[in-house]
Structures are given as structure tokens and as C-alpha cells.
Amino acid sequence: MLEPKSKSHIRLPWNSLGLVAVLIVLILFFGLMSEYFFSAVTFRTLVNQIPALTVIAVGMTFVLLIAGIDLSVGSVMALCAAVMGVLIIDQQTSIAIALISALLVGLACGAANGFVSAKWRIPSFVVTLGMLEIARGGAYLVTNSETKYLGESVGFIGSPIAGLGISAALIAAILVVVIAQWVLSKTLFGRYMIAIGTNEEAVRLSGVNPLFWKVLVFALAGLLAGLGGIFQLGYLQSADPNAGIGLELAAIAAVVIGGTSLSGGRGSVVNSFLGVLIIAVMQAGLAQLGVSEPSKRIITGLVIIVAVLFDQFREPLGRLFQKKRAA
Amino acid sequence: MLLQIKNLNKSFAVPVLKNLNFELQKGEVHALLGSNGAGKSTLCNIISGIYTADSGSFEYCGQPYTPSSLQAAETLGICMVMQELNLFPTLSVAENLYFRSMSDRFGIVQHQAIQQRAIKALQTVGLNYIDPAQPLSQLGVGQQQLIEIASVLQRNIKLLILDEPTSALTGPQIDLLFEQIIQLKKQGIGVIYISHRMDEMSRIADRVSILRDGELVATEATTDISTDRMVQLMAGDESTSIDKKESISQPCVQSDSTLLKVENFSRRTKNQSGGDSGFEDISFNLRAGEVLGIGGLIGSGRTELLRAIFGADQAHAGYIRLASDEFKVQRIMKSPTEAISHGIGMLVEDRKSQGLLLSHSVSKNISFAILDRLTSKLGLVDQSTEQDLAMSMKKKLGIQYNSSQQPISSLSGGNQQKALLARWLAIEFSILLLDEPSRGVDARAKSQIQTLIRELAAMGKAIIVVSSETQELLKVSDRIAVMSNGRLAGIFNADELSEEKLLEASFCFYSSEGNQLETTNART
Fold it and tell me: At what angle do helices A14-33 and A314-326 cross, to 10 degrees?
């Protein structure tokens, strides 16, 4: 009776360990190359930059799991931050109301993405590409194309908590990762997501309506983009309508490095988080080495491709690994 | 001697083929028989170069032969038609037939030329009414299977492997295929023939080799061995006696309580070539405790009818009435969810594309339709109840697997099918629709599934079985409805129906319109 129970725990498959290994190697590498890298300041700066990307990557993991894609998250994030900024600065609303409004805007954008693509069977690539433009336009519209400076009033979100060194946003983001991984591996919703990504027709013929669950996944991705917007706004202490351009690609890159399949049915939230960390460490490390911005982008691009190559040969490698362990 | 194999061994973690000896003469049809997992497909995959053997010696046309790849085997004239279709649905029939030789040396597709050649190729498999310019996707599964065979026949072959070529074919299509095989024999081509249909063995094969658990248990001339003996050899110690099988055709206790009334049910869809598909004006009653078989040719609307009752597609006209509504409500099911909530379940025709969740474990596949009931208010799946369900189904249906965490993709076809049946047994159904329940399933699993169908009926469930195998229909059904060209040709009592009568009924609505059908299909 003990054996199946231990199996039902959240397993750390060897590719999780592989990602942790890559992360450690990267940290050691940059530590050796740059004398400033191994410092509390570096790590504090690094981890307090990632909350927005983290929660957006969580949403993206769910979307890729059901074999969809969401290109609109960067723009939706900017729109939500813009709405929040305008409410606080121009409308003088309370921060709580502004927060909730930002989340609702994200939820609405995501739900619209999901409903249009699932109901009328339009590829989510196209629908969210449309939303990418719509939300960006919306962000310019509500802010009059100006950055809204909020100052200390929202500092509690993104500034490091005294004595702890990490921000409330980071704690919230890690909480989101943990909850999302639990949802994925333990709940009905998680099971249905994997099943829809594997064989949607079989799901339908088993009496489960995929429409509801697909809309829910996109709505969640939108909600998390909204949350990302709040984190971003707290970090920058301003609402910039130009924020998050290209963020959807960074999120997809992190998720793909984490080994989630673009064709659906396979993925892990924890691994996506490790993907986010790998990207963040690389960005910070390369910057400290004085690598120029263009070179940084080239290197990041190569890492993404290599990661997917590894993933492609994951199973044969995994078998080799298991054989060695057995021997 | 065309092919001689000695002491062949192959294992995938566990031994799959053990010291196997096999030979094939020129012009011989050599059948391979065995349960799923007995090693037939592995043997054929080795001969055709897809897998390499661990040990053993091969001789082909008097030369030592070490097949290194599918391409290498093909250049030596060894071709295999696989169970799964390897075709391109969006390309035309002609492009599929000449996929590797459709262009000139500049890469321009020679539409005219390949269509001319395709007309001849189509004649060889009796599909002369098909327009070669038509997209392949407009053809039925049986027709597609014939296209695949036709494309292999175009090549220069010496050894042909056919892996269950008739599983999707109807009687006349099988006759045509067999004529082609006889032609191949005359040309000295050796044929390795895999099938689960026993009656085909004596019809087409010269010799039959029976495999069990990776070992060759017998090679006999088909004239020297009876069907009963073949089944015994395949099953080994747990011999399936034929009497037991026949006893299941005894009608069980029948109540008069009708569960389902289907009235003037219709769904017609035009495909792009102008041909009709679907069904029209179907009416029948289904009683508790009975098995209603549905016979007819492939494409006669049987699958479409089941799907519409289940709500997978919506009917265009007519309705069904259910005992649970006291037959007062005229219903057209809008979704499978709605049908399931009224106690209707359906086992789909194509388990891979419509039934299985291949990346999920066996237990997750079994529990899927009732997963919401295994879930707490928080949304948490109760995994221990899920395991218990899998265990009880494993015992009840004799599903063979090592761990319920094993992915379902690693199971044999028969066990996959049983797991899907278990998915429906887990819901509280009163009506179960089964579309080709024993397709691609080994003989033992097949008889187990058939017995299960009778047991369910004895428990008072109402069951509809669509099958292309006349023997199976006669064996499991109380009554048999025969569909022909989308219409109901009649409903017969199973014990009064002969194979000839069934076939006659299957054709009755084609005959008067037969020519018309051909012309509409040939038009683009």
C-alpha cells in the first residue's frame, strides 16, 4: 500500500533535476567569470525582477498544455497596469479597487481569447494575435500614451521587504507556482487540461465539454497577465503603456526551456519556473560580464534552441539514465 | 524458397520473439495467427527492416539478408501494408497512389499522367468508381485501406506483408482483395498474411503459422487444420471452446420494457464530390436486456447513426424517446455530455483518435468519464478510489497490465479496448452503443468482449453493436438491424438470419441506385 502512495506524490522527474543542474552550472559559471556575481545584491536584484514573468509563464504553461498559445499576455499585462495606474492617479480610487480592476481586465481579455477561439474553433494563435493589438491599443488609449508615475504608494508590491530582501510580489509569484503545480497534478482541472491537450475529441466523446475548460485556461492566463501587470507596476512604480513588448515570447521561451510540449498534453509549472530562473540568471550574468545587448539576445536565442533540442532527445537520454541507475 | 528465418530472437526489455523459425515459399500465402502481443507484428517489422533482430539468421532469395531499414527492404522487393493507414488525407487519391513518383525531374507534379495511371491502379482493387482527383479524405476507411494496398501493388515486389488488411473491408471488397492476392501468387510473389478472421485462413492461406507469447507453436497446411484447433493452439492451456462461444448466442431473459425509441431519425451530409453519407428515416425500438446488432456495409450509415444517438453529431430530423422520460419527450442529443446524463454510453469506432488518452495511465483512462464524481469540492481527484476502480475493472474484464500507472499506449490493442469498455462500465448507463467493439483485437480478447456484451444484456442493459463481422453479429445479437445505403433494410431475429440473407439486405438499397451512385462518385 505504501508504494502507490509514494508514487502519487509530486514527483520530480529527472528533467526537473536536469534544469536545476543547468541553473547551478550557470550560476557557478558566472560566479567564476565575474567577481561581482556572487553577491547578495545581485541575487536580490535578480529575483525581484522575475515575479511578472513568473506568473505569466505559469499561465502560458496551462495554455500550451491544452495545445493553445497566448500571444497577447505582454499587451494584456501593459493594459492592466495602465488601468491600475490611471485609476490611482487620475481617478484617485483606492489601491484595492485599482488592484481588483486590473485583475478583472486581465480576466476579461483572457476569457475573450478563450471563448472566441474555443467556441468558433479559430486557432488561438490568431485570436490572441488580435488581442495583442487590441490590448496594446487599449493601454495607449487609457494612458493617453503617457507613462503614469505612481511613486511610493505602490512600493509595497515590488520593493524588497525590510530584513527579508525579497518583495511581496516574489512571494506571491512563488505561491502562484506552488498552487498551479498542485492544481495541475492533483485536481480535476489539471487532469482535464492534460487530456484536452492529448486528445480533445476523446474528451468530448467521454462526456466532458472541452469548451468550458479551454475558456477557463485562457481566462486564467489573462488573470495572471493582470497579476503580472500589478507586479510590474509595483516594481517600476509607474504604469508604462509600452511595458511588456515581446514578453509573450520570453514567457514561451521559459515554458519551452522547462520542457512543456508546444503540441500539448505534457508540461510542468515548476519546470517553467526553473525556465524563468535560467533566463533571468543568464540575462543578469551576461550583463555583468559586459556582454552587449545584441550578443545577449543571440546567446539567449541559442539557449532556447538547445533546450528544445535536449527536450527532443529527452526520452532516449532518460532511458539511458534509468539503465545506468539500474545497473 | 523465398525467405528463411532461423532461430530469431528479439526482445524489448522482455523477450518478444524466442528462437523463432519461419519460412516462406515463392507464390505462397503464409498466414500468421496469434493473440495480440504474440509477436506477429514484431516479426513482420523485422522482416520489413523497421526493427533489427537481436540474433538469428536470415536468407532471402538464396542470399543472406540483414534488413537495415524499411527503404533497404523495399529496394529488395519487400513491402508491408500496415494496419494503421499511412496516407495523406488532404492529397488526391492519385497523389497518394504515386506519392514517391508523382513529379518529373524538376519537381513539377504530373497531374495528368498520374491520374491516368491511377485509373488502372484503382481498377485492380475494384475502386473504378473513384475519381483519382478526389481528396483521399472523402473516402471511407475501407476504401482508403484499398488505396494503400493498390499503391503497394504498383511497386516491384517479391514479398508482400499484409497486416490485417481486411479489418476495415466489407465482403465484396475482401473478395476483390483475395482475387488480387491470387494474382500475386501466380506471379510467384510470397505473401505473409496477418488476420484475426479465422474464416479467411482456409480461403486464402496455403499454410498457417500460429504464434503464442513469441514462440512458434505450429506451422500447418490450412487444409490439415481446423478452425477450432487454431483457436486452441493460439489460446494455449486456457482453450476457448467453441461450444461456450455458441452458447452466448442463446437469447437471454428478455423483458418487454423498451428503453429507447428511435423515430424517423435522419442525418444526411453531402460530401464535396456530391456523394451522400449519413442515414435517413431510421426507426426502431430497443428493449432492456437485448443486444441489437447493426449490420451493413461500411459507409451504410451505421457509425453515423450511433454517433447521432450519442450526440457526437446532431441528427437533422426525427428524434429519440427515452424510457426515463416515459417516452414523452422528443429528443435530439446535442452533446455526448447530454447523452451520458441520460445513461447512454458509446464505445467509439477508432479508439486511437477518438477514445484513448495516450499519454495518460491505464487508471486515468478508465476513470475519465466519471472523474468529476471522484473529485472533492476543492477539485481534488481522489486517487485511491481511482486506483480501486482500475483494480476492480482489471479483474472484471481481465485487462492485462503490470501497473495501473503504465501509459495506456504500452498496452496491446485488446487490452486498450477493454480499458475503454471499462470507462463506460464505470458510468451508470442503461444503454451502451458499441461501434466495432472487437476491431483490431485478438481472438481471445474478442471472445471475452463478446461474452461481456451478453452478460451486460443479462443484467438488463440495452446494447447496440455495430460490427462488420457477420459471425460476430450473429453470435452476440438477439436482433439484427441491417442498414443499406443509409436506410434500414430490415430488422431480423438473429436465429432466423443467415449470412446470405444479411448480405442480401445490406445491398438492397444500393442495387436500384447502384449505377447512379457510381456516377455521382466519379463526378468531381
Answer: 100
B364 → closest Cβ in A191, A205, A208: A191
Q: Does B387 touch chain A (CB under 8 A)?
A: yes
Name every residue whose Cβ is closer than 8 Å to that of residue A44 and which is 6 or more positions away in sequence. Answer: A160, A165, A166
Residue A247 one-letter amino acid: L
- Give yes or no: residues B317 and B277 share one domain: yes
Question: Quick one: closest CA in A to B310, which residue?
Answer: A205
- Based on the domain organization, do B336 and B363 belong to the same domain? no
**Is A194 close to B387, i.e. CB distance below 8 A?**
no
Residue B349 lies in a domain: no
CB-based contact (8 Å) between B339 and chain A?
A: yes
- To test the contact with chain B by mutation, choose from A119, A193, A205 the residue with the greatest count of B C-beta atoms within 10 A, namely A205
Tell me, what amino acid is at B235? Answer: A
| CA A243/CA B14 separation, integer angstroms | 57
Whether residue B156 is found in the same domain as residue B264: no
B239, B269, B299: which is the final residue of a domain? B239
Helices (H) and strands (E) in chain B, counts: 18, 19
Between the alpha carbon of residue A198 and those of residues A160, B23, B112, B379, the distances in Å are: 41, 42, 40, 21
Who contacts B127 (Cβ-Cβ below 8 Å, separation ≥6)? B143, B146, B147, B150
Q: In chain A, what residues touch B371 (CB-CB under 8 Å)?
A: 188, 191-192, 208
Instruction: Name every chain A residue with its beta carbon within 8 A of the beta carbon of B380.
Output: 186-188
- Residue at B250 is within a domain: no
Tell me whether B394 touches chain A (CB under 8 Å). Answer: no
Does residue B232 surpass a pLDDT of 70?
yes
Domain contains B245: no
Quick one: fold of A38-312? ABC transporter involved in vitamin B12 uptake, BtuC (1.10.3470)
Domain ranges of chain A: 38-312
Task: Please work out, in degrees rounded to the nearest 5, the angle formed at the alpha carbon of residue B331 by the alpha carbons of B314 and B320.
Answer: 90
How far does the CA of residue A321 sit from the closest CA of chain B (Å)? Answer: 15
Q: Does pLDDT of B244 surpass 80?
A: no
In a domain, B89, yes or no: yes
Distance from the B333 Cα atom to the nearest Cα atom in chain A, whole angstroms: 12
> Chain B contact for A11, CB < 8 A?
no
Window from A307-321, B298-312, B381-395 with minimum mean pLDDT: A307-321
Confidence band for B247, pLDDT divided at 50, 70 and 90: very low
Please name the residue of chain B whose CA is at the shortest distance from the CA of residue A196.
Answer: B357
Torsion on CA atoms B118, B123, B127, B133, rounded to nearest 10: 20
Q: List, in sequence order, every residue forming a beta bridge with B359; answer none if it has no partner.
A: none
Total number of domains constituting chain B: 3
Same structural domain for residues B406 and B492?
A: no
Domain hosting residue B383, numbered range: 355-427
Residue type (1 letter), B421? L
Q: What pLDDT is recorded for position B326?
A: 87
∠ CA B98-B99-B101, nearest 5°, is 65
Shortest Cα distance, chain A CAs vs residue B349, angstroms: 11
Q: Do B164 and B312 fall within a single domain?
A: no
Between residues B123 and A64, the one the model is more confident about: A64
Q: Chain A partners of B362 at a C-beta cutoff of 8 Å?
A: none
Q: What does the alpha-carbon distance between residue B383 and residue B374 come to, in Å, rounded to a whole number? A: 8
By the 8 A CB rule, do B146 and B173 touch?
yes
Interatomic CA distance for residues A188 and B380, integer angstroms: 6
Whether residue B272 sits in one domain with residue B219:
no
> B379 and A187 in contact by Cβ < 8 A?
yes
| CB neighbours of residue B36 within 10 Å | 22
Give per-residue pLDDT as tens, A12-53.
455 788 889 889 999 999 999 888 888 888 888 888 899 999
Cα(B36)–Cα(A300) distance, rounded to whole angstroms? 49
